[in-house]
Specification:
Largest sheet: 9 strands, mixed
Shape: globular
Strand content: 15-25%
Helix content: 25-40%
Length: 480
């Protein structure tokens, strides 16, 4: 990759009687050699290819040097490798490794039409920016921004990737809902001050099933946390039921999603249940006064956190249409009483304590997945002026997460990195130095001989190759 440093030699602290020098003159050396694993994941799953299919290209074909598939791949791989901004791609376009990942016929860029572009295989920030800034439903009428993203297509694609991951219907599908803050620092469309987060932000809605991302919807923050959740559930559950008509579906969420419209909708569906947090109030606390007293006495006797569970039927005075099953946890900690409540449609065959401890509390794991996407894959880089283009950026980050999750599921299960975060996967498996050797018939990557995880990398490679062999025999993405 070319740099402004050129051949300048940098002198560092010497070692014994030897000088230590460095210069950016190694030629085609990449720091992202391990990204070939992601390319193998894409070969098996077709995640990027399917996402690229959600775009409609209205550009004049005779002037196109970068196809939509290549642009999408460049952006997604860039995010997975830690390059969060479009500005990064003005330098990355020189990178032969990114040219390989993007699927360029000549990853060196020497086949470019214009002489000034020679040596730049990939697109620069301006071309990528036009793709992200194309207005919603524009039909390609804009003079420069002509790559239109199909909103409905993206939402179906995200659920379809989840469905493709299973050869047979699972026993149960658990959909976790959560809203989080996405801080903004400009005058973006849809920005509002949110009192709970004490900042200007967006309020995106996420829906996960385990580690699989099914929905990432960017929303303004002047709304209730549950706004639009029922409509997303209707869409997702409907698509799941198209494939698996009889599968049992559970909905989980915190108190922000304990709304009549969501509960009533679940109750009106076949084999759909909910477990939702319920914000405490004086009436609920009165129901467990004896249990709270018992928990306090136990704590005073043992000095350890004490919990007592109780179940009862409860109905709000106005907002609920019917009485519902409530599970209460009367807990006493060093800081004092800590009562918690959940409401559920599950029947008496499920023990109340089990519902709370084993099922409801498990939803907290999705917060780690959201954190991964925001911290490791830059889902919070929503800095354009328009809500739609920021939504497009969130989807790019989501696809990068889906690709990394597919690597985790297909290649890392049973290894020491089975539960590794996207950031750890990037550091240990993707950021490998390598020298790229090109010939007419071969692109060979000479990876760093001092790489400390060779055996792990090799095992993952072999697993992905086995998946690729299965996929080649019968094109069923992800089912491996």
């Amino acid at each position: 990759m070319q740099t402004e440093c050129g051949q300048t030699v940098m002198e560092f602290q010497g070692l014994k009687n030897r000088a230590v020098e460095a210069a950016f003159d190694g030629g085609r050396i990449t720091s992202d050699g391990g990204a070939l694993l992601l390319r193998e994941v894409e070969r098996v799953t077709g995640i990027i290819r399917q996402f690229a299919g959600c775009f409609e290209d209205h550009r004049a074909e005779q002037w196109v040097e970068h196809t939509v598939g290549e642009l999408v791949a460049q952006r997604v791989y860039g995010l997975a490798l830690g390059y969060e901004d479009l500005n990064d791609h003005d330098r990355l376009r020189h990178d032969t490794m990114l040219g390989v990942l993007a699927g360029k016929a000549d990853p060196t860029g020497e086949d470019r039409i214009r002489e000034r572009d020679r040596g730049k295989a990939c697109a620069g920030k301006s071309t990528l920016n036009r793709m992200e800034l194309t207005a919603k439903g524009s039909g390609g009428a804009d003079r420069y921004k002509k790559i239109v993203l199909d909103e409905d297509g993206v939402e179906r694609f995200m659920v379809e990737v989840f469905l493709q991951a299973h050869a047979t219907a699972p026993e149960r599908v658990v959909l976790d809902l959560d809203a989080t803050d996405d801080p903004v620092h400009g005058n973006q469309e849809g920005r509002f001050f949110h009192g709970y987060y004490d900042e200007y932000c967006y309020l995106p809605l996420y829906i996960f099933c385990g580690d699989d991302l099914l929905c990432a919807r960017l929303r303004p923050s002047n709304i209730d946390a549950s706004a639009g959740a029922k409509e997303q559930l209707e869409r997702i559950v409907g698509q799941i039921r198209e494939r698996w008509p009889e599968v049992e579906i559970w909905i989980r969420g915190d108190s922000g999603f304990c709304r009549e419209e969501i509960m009533a909708w679940c109750e009106g569906q076949r084999n759909v249940h909910y477990i939702l947090g319920m914000a405490k109030n004086s009436r609920l606390v009165e129901q467990i006064e004896a249990e709270l007293k018992q928990a306090r006495q136990t704590y005073e006797e043992t000095g350890e956190a004490a919990r007592v569970y109780k179940e009862f039927s409860y109905q709000t005075r106005e907002s609920w249409s019917r009485a519902r099953r409530m599970v209460a946890k009367a807990e006493h900690l060093a800081k004092g009483a800590n009562p918690r409540f959940v409401v559920t449609s599950l029947g008496g065959e499920f023990d109340g304590q089990l519902i709370y401890e084993e099922h409801y509390c498990a939803r907290g794991e999705m917060e780690n997945r959201i954190k991964e996407q925001q911290l490791d894959l830059f889902a919070d880089r929503t800095s354009t002026g328009h809500l739609w283009s920021n939504q497009v950026r969130l989807w790019f980050s989501s696809v990068a997460y889906m690709l990394m999750q597919a690597l985790r599921r297909l290649g890392l299960q049973g290894t020491e990195m089975a539960q590794a975060t996207c950031g750890t996967i990037r550091t240990k498996l993707l950021k490998i130095g390598g020298y790229i050797k090109l010939s007419v018939r071969r692109i060979r990557l000479a990876l760093a001989g001092g790489y400390p995880f060779v055996h792990l990398f090799t095992a993952i490679y072999n697993r992905l190759r086995q998946c690729a062999a299965i996929s080649a025999k019968r094109w069923i993405p992800l089912r491996c």
